[in-house]
Structure formats: C-alpha cells, structure tokens
Design a protein that fits this description.
By secondary structure, this protein is α/β, with parallel strands linked by helices. Helix content is 30%, strand content 12%. The radius of gyration is 29 Å and the shape is globular. The termini are far apart.
Length: 578
C-alpha cells in the first residue's frame, strides 16, 4: 500500500516547488555555459559603427547557423572562428556531406544551346511579335508553360573574367564566343580577336582615335570634370567603350542595346565590367524614372530620332535631369563631310538633321554646340518659358500623366513630361543636385521636398548609417570583399535608397540597384539623385541581362517583400521553393 500511494500522488503534491524550479534552471544554465566554453566561447558581430542598429543580413544568417548546428560543427560555423568561405567547392569529397543534407529540389543543366538564354528577350519567341518599331525586341516574357526549369550552363571553355581594369581592354573568347562584330566592325577598331582573347582597343564608329580622345572632345564643350555630371545613358552602346572610359572619370554610364541574334553587344559590355542592360527604344518607356540622367548619348546608334512625332527624343527628355545634356554624333551630324561614306544623299541627311533640330526646339532644348562630328543640346532647368511657349508651339503638349516615374511596361507618350513647379526662371525644378561625390550622402531633393510619401530625411540618414555598418560587417566575414580585384559587377535585388551601393562607392566596383515593382517602388529616383544607377524589376520575371554577368548578388528582404504582395502567385513563388 505504501508503494501504491506514492504512485498516485494528488495534483497539488505533483506541482513543482520554487526551489525545484530554480535548481533545474541552474543546472540547464551550467550545462549550456559548459557547452559554449567547450566549443570556442562566446562570439559577437563586430561593433563597427556602434549604435543599436539591427544586425546585417549576413550576421543574422551566421547567428542562425551557429544556433542550429550540431556540437561537432559549431566550432567551424561560428562568427568569431575561421573566416567564412564563400568560394564554390564541388570536389568528390563533398559527397558524404551532400547525402547528409536535407532533401532539396535538384535542377538538371539546360541543353548547351541555352548558355546565353535571356528569358524575356528570347530571339525565337520575339518573332511572334510585330516588327514595326522593333516591338519584337522589347521584353516578352515566357508564359508559365514555357518557363525553363533547369540551370543555364556556361559555354565550353568558360573562364573567370579578367578583373577590372584589365577587363576594360581584354576578355576571354570562350566566355562570349561571337566573332561577328570583329568582322563587321573590323575597320572601326571596336574589337579584335587575339588568340583565345578578345581585345577592345577603345575605338568606335565615330571615335577612330579612341573613346578617351572622344570624351576629351566632349569635355571641351560641357563640364565633364567638375562633378556636375555623374550619371549618363548610352543608347545603342555597341561594346560600351564610351561607358568603359567614363568610369575612370567618375562618371557612371548605363549602357543599353537590344538583344541581337548574334552580336551580343550588352554581353560584351558586362564581360568588360561596364554597367549595361538589354533594352530598346520601341513602344515602352525606358525602365528608368523621370529626371534620372545628367546626360544621354548617341554615337551612330541608328535610332530614328526624327520619326514618330519625335517620340524617342521625347522619352530622352523625360529621363534627362533639368539642365541635362543630349549628345549626338554620327548621322546626320557633319553630313557635308560624311555623306559619301554614309552612302546617303546630302538632301536626305540635311532633311533628317532639320527634323531633329525641330523636335529639340519643340522640347525647349537649347543647342549648345556643334563642333566637327559632335552636337550637344541642353534641357531647360525648368518649364516656365516652355509652358508659355505652348501658346505658339502646340505640339507636343504637356502630359497629364500623374506619375512620370512609372516605367514598367508603360507606353511612351508623345507629350512633354512636366518638370516640378518652379517660382523663378533661375530655379532648378525639383531641386539642385550637389556635385559628385557630395551628392552621394547629401539629402536627395525628392526626399527634401517631401514628394515621396512616407519617406523622411531621418529615414534616409538612418538607412545610410545602417548600410555603412552592414557593409563593414560583410567585409569582416566575407574575406573576398576586401580583395580589390575579386568583385566588379554587383547586383542589389532590393535597393531601396541605394544604401548598399553608397557604402561601396569608394571601392573599385559598381552596383546595379534594382527597385522591385511591388512595394514602395518610388525610390529609384532617389538612387539616381545620389549619383548611382539602377532599374525597375519584377522578380517574378527574368531580368534583362545575360547569364553569368554579376560577381555578387545581394538580396535583403526580397522574398518577404513578394510574399506580402498581390504578386505572390503560384507562377511566381515556384522559383523560391528551393
């Protein structure tokens, strides 16, 4: 009976007492501390930058790995131990580790013919669309049933690209195995084959003495050297020598060209380490906000500026900053000298130039100079006079569109995008920008004016401090970040204000800042006002770039951004499952 009574205690008797609870807690704590001491002691993220900012994505991921590993691996994974290894390891010795890992979706390699696959600019699919105005070369993404579920392979013989600045002048032939431009542009000094390499002499159709000398000529006409010009757009960029030679002058050029069936202009640009994206002036707006660029450039880019009621020049006007410059070289400029070489009549070329001059005048642009093969126009700093001129010049009218920054499949319109209101003829509409590099950290005018709803100066300043601290932490745990020739082309998938790129501005690399079209997609204009570059992007679709073009991809809060949006549909989230 006595034993039976002990087996059936009352509920009150079974309830633990306070001393018992304290004893259990002390024993658990002692066991935990002993385990931590045994496996290397306590660690903490570097405190550079100080303050109570939240830990960086890298520190969060690292802390999680420490918390979840077994005792046999904790000493390897901890933050304060050996440097984290971000290199790929695919040796046979890894088989056991792979087998022990949790089951995950495995993707096979795509057939070799897809080594340069660009989902939304697929050459075969594009033929279904109208050829008028090159609409077939715009973005046309695959339907759900057409999407590839395989890994794009590298071409045979692919090698790690040369680091910048060597990459400006040389690239491996196997990485972009296309000889067409070496034949077509042989006499124009664009690109040559030299054994297993391509060499880029820096020449161009309209700059036979090299891009450097050509830029020097432009610099005699507009201020390229005082920091007032930082962002540039190169339309129909060729192999992007103009943008490549501007980088050393602290001018960041966004180059674009359409996806050709064989020429691979943008692929060459990115292989050289120059910012570029696949794009074309056709029917949709270029995927940049209004007032983005300090100058735009066309060197024999073959864009018919005078056609379609000047629609393409009107689009350039939308994305040019108040007081920005448009540079044109090649046909029809200096037609009296080049008409025979261009195999066009003098009358035809003269008519084309007069038509371009007329469109520029209707946009209230001022022609600054025409010297030799180069002509330059300047956009007004405000629209006070231009609006008054509409009483006489009826076309094009001012747009009534409420969102001049909208540029994701939005159609171009034959109307002038109005600048923000100005009260004085000398005032710069929307606010004057600081010169580079001061504009990188200065409060962007769009935020200072309160034109971005819900964004304050305090938010911007805190974001700048936070990313300076986070990037410092990245460098402390990713040893490759400290190597000057390791990373050149970087991509930020959710750039917000461009804080990640701003924190890296002093390093020999550039960042393509992508602002997702879901959420607060109004911040791309802020990024450009900081002297950085970027693009809109819906990450449920393919990006307008080639495979293997970025050295490092940075993603902060991308999945959560989409998960909380209406864009989170089965066709989108399938790509995140693994």
């Amino acid at each position: 009976m006595a034993v039976g009574a002990k087996l059936h205690l009352s509920p009150a008797a079974r309830r633990p007492t306070l001393p018992q609870l304290l004893a259990v807690a002390l024993l658990c704590s002692a066991s935990y501390l002993a385990g931590v001491w045994h496996h290397g002691g306590f660690t903490a993220a570097p405190a550079a930058g100080g303050g109570g900012a939240s830990p960086s994505p890298v520190s969060i991921a690292t802390a999680a790995s420490v918390a979840c590993v077994s005792p046999t691996t904790a000493g390897v994974a901890r933050v304060g131990g050996a440097p984290l290894d971000f290199e790929a390891h695919h040796a046979a010795d890894d088989t056991e580790a792979v087998n022990a890992a949790p089951a995950r979706r495995a993707y096979e390699a795509c057939p070799a013919k897809y080594s340069e696959y660009t989902p939304c600019e697929d050459v075969e699919r594009s033929l279904r669309f109208p050829r008028d105005r090159l609409v077939y070369r715009e973005r046309h993404c695959p339907a759900e049933g057409e999407r590839l579920r395989c890994l794009v392979p590298a071409p045979k013989g692919y090698r790690t690209p040369f680091p910048w600045p060597t990459s400006r002048d040389v690239a491996w032939f196997a990485n972009v195995p296309h000889k067409e431009l070496t034949v077509e542009k042989a006499v124009q000094n664009w690109i040559h084959v030299d054994g297993d390499k391509f060499r880029f002499p820096g020449g161009g159709t309209m700059f036979p003495h090299g891009a450097g000398a050509y830029i020097d000529d432009i610099g005699k006409l507009i201020p390229l050297h005082d920091g007032s010009i930082r962002t540039a757009l190169d339309t129909g960029c060729g192999v992007a020598s103009w943008g490549a030679y501007l980088l050393s002058r602290n001018i960041l050029a966004m180059s674009f060209a359409p996806r050709d069936s064989h020429e691979a202009q943008v692929q060459f640009a990115l292989e050289r380490g120059v910012p570029a994206m696949i794009g074309v002036l056709a029917s949709n707006r270029l995927t940049y906000p209004a007032r983005a660029f300090d100058m735009a450039h066309c060197s024999r880019c073959l864009i018919p500026w005078q056609l379609y009621d000047g629609l393409y020049l009107i689009e350039v006007d939308r994305i040019l900053r108040p007081g920005g410059y448009w540079i044109l070289s090649g046909p029809p400029i200096n037609w009296k000298k080049h008409s025979k070489g261009w195999q066009r009549t003098r009358e035809d070329l003269n008519a084309e130039q007069q038509a371009i001059e007329s469109v520029a005048k209707s946009l209230c642009w001022k022609k600054i100079k025409e010297v030799g093969d180069i002509a330059i126009w300047q956009k007004p700093t405000n629209h006070i006079h231009c609006k008054a001129s509409r009483r006489v010049i009826k076309s094009p009218p001012f747009c009534s569109n409420k969102n001049p920054d909208a540029a994701w499949y939005d159609k171009m319109e034959a109307c002038i995008t109005p600048l923000p209101e100005a009260s004085d003829i000398k005032e710069v509409a929307g606010g004057e920008l600081k010169k580079w590099p001061q504009r990188l950290t200065a409060l962007p005018p769009r935020i200072a004016s309160g034109s971005i709803e819900g964004v304050t100066a305090e938010m911007f300043n805190e974001d700048t401090k936070l990313w300076k601290k986070r990037v410092g932490h990245y460098k402390s745990v990713i040893s490759q970040f400290g190597q000057k020739d390791r990373y050149g082309n970087l991509l930020d998938m959710n750039a917000r204000f461009g804080g990640f790129a701003a924190a890296l501005a002093g390093d020999p690399m550039w960042v393509m800042n992508m602002v997702p079209t879901v959420g607060n997609s109004t911040t791309l204009g802020v990024i450009y006002e900081r002297g950085l570059i970027g693009n809109y992007q819906d990450w449920c679709e393919g990006m307008s770039t080639y495979p293997r073009t970025y050295d490092l991809i940075h993603a902060d809060s991308v999945f959560s951004l989409y998960k909380d949006s209406a864009r989170w549909t089965p066709s989108c989230w399938k790509w995140t499952e693994s």
